[in-house]
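Field reference: "sequence" (input) and "structure" (output). Example, Plant bHLH transcription factor ACT-like domain-containing protein:
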Amino acid sequence: MMSSRERKKAAALQEKLQILRSITHSHALSNTSIIMDASMYIKELKQKVARLNQETACAQDVLGQNRVTVETLGHGFLVNVFSGKSCPGLLVSILEAFDELGLSVLEATASCADTFRLQAIGSENPVEKVDEHAVKQAVLQAIRTCSDTARDDDVDDE
């Protein structure tokens, strides 16, 4: 027979498990399954935090002068790129990055005067699934590569 104190502890534990179930959007009924779902939820959150930290580092890494936004459009993407400084070959580098991801550019508008602007609509190859994050990272990498190359050329000219 359970004492009053043991019943209170068991009730408190059940209440905490139900809160955990609610927070993690678990549909599990058993305590073990609720805890397993919570563990998976924590793992997903850790991955999201790591990805966001990586994106933040990439954005800061590119001197804060560059903005890349990617939106999913059906079976493709709307990509907007702004760079505070245009460098030779930047458009080509970005288009090559699209190609490596299996994206076909359907329509694009670009300006490469002092600053660089690109708005492109790309459709993905149905065989290769690509997400917004991958497109954004590829574009940021293309900008970094182009900026590094331009910096190296400036040093060589001196």
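The radius of gyration is 24 Å.
The first helix runs from residue 4 to 23.
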